[in-house]
Amino acid sequence: MSGKSEPVSRSLRPRAAAPIRPVSETFSASDVAKKPSPRRTKTSLALDVELYRRAKIAAIQQGETVSEFIEAAIRSALPD
After folding, report:
1. Buried-state track 32-71, b at ≥16 Cβ within 10 A, e below 16
2. Vertex 17 angle, CA 11 and 23, to 5°
3. Degrees (nearest 5) of the Cα angle 47, 52, 57?
4. pTM of the full predicted structure?
5. Per residue of the chain (80 residues), what is the pLDDT tens digit?
6. How far apart are CA 28 and CA 68, in angstroms?
7. What are phi and psi of 32, to 5 degrees?
8. Domain range list for the chain
């Protein structure tokens, strides 16, 4: 052997250990009590950058995610 070590492939390098959470944090009673969420679909939208920025700020101010904010806006724009 020449003393040189062979380069280690990225896939063989050890990964940082993920913190282990107690079972009580992983599965809580509050998870069981939650109402089932409606069916969802993922989609991609091409939005004006400034419009998205304003929607994100408004969502944060209302304590919602951008998805929740946009869904509410679409619901209010559609007839029942």
Report:
1. eeeeeeeeeeeeeeeeeeeeeeebeeebeeeeeeeeebbe
2. 130
3. 170
4. 0.52
5. 556 666 655 666 566 666 666 666 555 555 555 556 678 888 999 999 999 999 999 999 999 999 999 999 999 999 98
6. 24
7. -70, -35
8. 44-80
